[in-house]
């Protein structure tokens, strides 16, 4: 259904080169003019993601000045090793942190240099999220657009596996899953997939966040997409942020593989979405060389148990516990350990990297 969107999908992510090692500081700058950015979509958007920066003093507020076009997004490293959402500077982060990362967001022209300053201001740090993360029931549409380009520069393949959310605050980098979701259909099937695109309908609607921190539509209930309110309740005159009549209540777009193969959907449907970066606890990253870019999620710790969903390559999964099961050989070697990633949902450790501290089931 992405033909309904303001085709942000044509943007390309350019990853910045890491700067040489330097002393930690709370004032720093970066040259960005040498980076190539490919343009596309309407409105046009290009991203230049810069390396992480170590601060001399912990901070929670970042200001930025750009020479040329563009704005700066910033995020901070949380105590659990995960990143906060991206926020447009000047920004007050939900945590006080010693490590921040920035990216330049272009809409036209180019930027040559960005200067940043981090400081600490009185603010309540983020309250630890529930282990499972925030979860809401929203309407899902199929993205399609095979051959097009997502907002992070990924070229969409046939039967691809990713999702789009209507805010770049939860947009993961290309071949990254540090912003991933668990999407479950009413048939009991689930898929774990990275957020690689922006949409549907809006581009500044982080509806999963509390009203106080939501970028737009602050008078809507947390968990209710603006498109849903416009379609069902004539909110904003039934129009999205661009003034277009909203023709469905979609709060998430699903790539074709996620839609057809992961969830076994045949038509646009209501689904339950868990925004995994809002949770806490052990986390791992799916790694597979399979042609379809996924690993099977099973009802038990054995490949003979029912297949109840898929986990996409690069997606992050929250691990509730681990147990001994069938020995499996995969990208991460051979192991008889399986991870429970939701009730009745298991994936072999051989396909998940980086898990630490998972308790026994």
Please outline the helices and strands:
Blueprint: E1 13-15, E2 27-31, E3 46-68, E4 71-76, E5 87-88, E6 91-106, E7 111-119, E8 134-142, E9 163-165, E10 180-184, E11 190-198, H1 226-233, E12 250-254, H2 256-262, E13 269-275, E14 283-286, E15 294-298, E16 307-312, E17 316-318, E18 321-330, E19 333-342, E20 345-348, E21 352-353
Parallel strand pairs: 1-3, 8-12, 9-11, 11-16
Antiparallel strand pairs: 2-7, 3-6, 3-7, 4-5, 4-6, 8-13, 9-12, 10-11, 10-13, 14-17, 14-21, 15-16, 18-19, 19-20
Helices and strands, in order, run as: EEEEEEEEEEEHEHEEEEEEEEE
Provide the residue-averaged pLDDT. Answer: 89
Low-confidence stretches: 2-21
Task: Give the radius of gyration.
Answer: 20 Å
What structural category do the secondary elements indicate? mainly beta
State the major sheet. Answer: 7 strands, mixed
Note the overall shape: globular
Oligomer: single chain
Total beta strands:
21
Strand residue content: 35-45%
N- to C-terminal distance: 40 Å
Helix content percent band: under 10%
């Amino acid at each position: 259904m992405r033909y309904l969107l303001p085709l942000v999908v044509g943007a390309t992510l350019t990853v910045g080169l890491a700067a040489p090692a330097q002393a930690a500081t709370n004032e720093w700058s970066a040259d960005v003019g040498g980076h190539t950015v490919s343009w596309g979509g309407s409105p046009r958007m290009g991203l230049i993601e810069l390396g992480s920066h170590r601060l001399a003093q912990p901070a929670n507020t970042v200001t930025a000045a750009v020479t040329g076009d563009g704005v700066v997004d910033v995020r901070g490293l949380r105590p659990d090793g995960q990143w906060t959402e991206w926020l447009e500077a000047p920004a007050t982060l939900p945590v006080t942190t010693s490590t921040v990362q920035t990216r330049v967001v272009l809409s036209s022209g180019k930027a040559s240099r960005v200067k940043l300053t981090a400081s600490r201001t009185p603010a309540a740090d983020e309250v630890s999220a529930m282990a499972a993360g925030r979860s809401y029931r929203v309407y899902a549409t199929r993205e399609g657009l095979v051959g097009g380009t997502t907002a992070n520069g990924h070229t969409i393949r046939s039967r691809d596996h990713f999702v789009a959310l209507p805010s770049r605050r939860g947009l993961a980098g290309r071949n990254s899953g540090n912003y991933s979701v668990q999407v479950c259909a009413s048939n009991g099937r689930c898929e774990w997939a990275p957020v690689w695109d922006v949409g549907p309908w809006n581009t500044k609607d982080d509806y999963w966040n509390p009203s106080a921190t939501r970028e737009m539509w602050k008078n809507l209930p947390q968990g209710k997409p603006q498109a849903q309110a416009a379609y069902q309740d004539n909110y904003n005159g039934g129009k999205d942020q661009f003034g277009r009549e909203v023709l469905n209540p979609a709060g998430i777009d699903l790539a074709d593989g996620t839609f057809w193969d992961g969830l076994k959907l045949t038509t646009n449907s209501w689904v339950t979405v868990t925004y995994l970066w809002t949770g806490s606890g052990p986390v791992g990253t799916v790694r597979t060389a399979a042609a379809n870019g996924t690993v099977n999620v099973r009802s038990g710790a054995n490949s003979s148990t029912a297949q109840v969903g898929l986990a996409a390559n690069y997606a992050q999964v929250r691990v509730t516990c681990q147990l001994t099961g069938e020995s499996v050989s995969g990208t991460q070697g051979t192991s008889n350990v399986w991870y429970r990633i939701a009730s009745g949902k298991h994936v072999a450790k051989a396909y998940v990297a980086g898990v630490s501290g998972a308790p026994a089931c």
